[in-house]
Structures are given as C-alpha cells and as structure tokens.
Amino acid sequence: xxxxxxxxxxxxxxxxxxxxxxxxxxxxxxxxxxxxxxxxxxxxxxxxxxxxxxxxxxxxxxxxxxxxxxxxxxxxxxxxxxxxxxxxxxxxxxx
Length: 95
What we know:
This protein is an all-alpha fold. It contains three helices and no strands. It is 91% helix and 0% strand. The model has no long low-confidence stretch (mean pLDDT 83).
C-alpha cells in the first residue's frame, strides 16, 4: 500500500487504512488468545474450567480494549494541564 500511495499525496488515507487493519488484526489475535486459553483449560482440566478461563480471558481483553486506553487519555490530559499551568505560571512570574 505504501509503494502504491507514495508520491500521490495520500498519506492520511494510507495511515487511516493501515490503522484500521492493525486494529482488526489485534482484535482477531486477542480473540484467538482467549480461545487458546479456553482450549488449554478444557483439555488439561475440564470443560467447566475451559469456559471459566474463556470468560476471564474475555473480561481481561475487554478491560485492556476499553478501560486502559481511557486511563491513558485521562493521564495525558492531566499531564498537559500541568504543563500548561507551569508555562502560564512562568510567564506571569516574568512580567
């Protein structure tokens, strides 16, 4: 895709589509990992343990896909506000 779009001023479109493909791939790999956890517990322990393992794996994935990114954005906003406050304080001290 990069070679086809190179020099055609299509970088934003290329980045957007690459991001979508990466997110789709990560979702598939996440679900595959949850399935593997379920299979291992199912074979090694019991079907009930496999289903419990699947539920826990899916819950962990849900947390990592929803809550963790929000926490990162909140932390980034807090850091940006502190930086802005520091810059404003320094400017007002100098006047």
